[in-house]
Amino acid sequence: MDTLKAIASRKSTRGYKPEQITDHELDTIVSAGATAPIGMGQFESVHMTIIQKADFLHKLSLAGGEIFGKPGMETLYGAPSLVLISSKPNEFGTEVGIANSACMIENMCLAATALGVGSVYIMGAIVALNKNAELLAELKLPEGYNPVAAVALGYSVEPLVEAETMTRKITVSTLK
Predict the structure, then answer these.
(1) Sign of the alpha-carbon dihedral angle for 13, 82, 48, 69
(2) What is the pLDDT of residues 86-126, one digit of tens each?
(3) Which 8-state DSSP code applies to residue 77?
């Protein structure tokens, strides 16, 4: 799939088959994230954690539901894989890490779409993770790194549909 078709076809997947994506698909998607632009070239300020441990994903998903005030809500939508991005704050604070993670996740979502893998940018579970010391400790993140975003991955229960064209959903203005 070409890049513009992947951009037009990408959508947030909110229902996954239990089947795990292949190691090749996962490696391709993670590599796409790892090649994203990183502020000031500080690649050492970002860490990715691949989570495929079903019981951990379930606990994290339910913790996200608690944050939304909806106990029992599965905020990871049953995805069998999650790529967590953690960042180490620099002299400019945490904003650069958040911007870096956004670039990484978009690359991963586009790569997933091109491979026929569903994806969704996850934030609720990240808020829950940062408020749950027990879950956070289980990740054994390198010292100084804080979770900032994640992408859930898996095969969608609904077929991914290739869009013919891109549709603007955001208003654009031009100053000349």
Answers:
(1) positive
(2) 999 877 767 888 999 999 999 999 999 999 999 999 988 89
(3) T
Which residue stretches of the chain are H helix? Answer: 3-9, 23-34, 54-67, 95-115, 124-131, 133-139
What is the rounded (10 degree) CA torsion for 54, 55, 61, 67? -160
Please say whether the beta carbons of 47 and 143 come within 8 A: no
- Cα–Cα distance for residue pair 59/146, rounded to 1 Å: 19
The radius of gyration of the chain from alpha carbons, rounded to an integer in Å, stands at: 16
Instruction: Tell me the per-residue pLDDT of 155-167, one tens digit each, with 9 for 90 and over.
Output: 999 988 877 777 7
Q: Which amino acid is at 166?
A: M
pTM, two decimals, is 0.92
Integer angstrom CA distances of residue 81 from 59, 67, 104, 155: 14, 21, 16, 10
* Calpha distance 105→122 (Å, rounded): 10
151 neighbors 13 (Cβ within 8 angstroms): no
How far apart, in whole angstroms, are the C-alpha atoms of residue 26 and residue 117?
A: 9
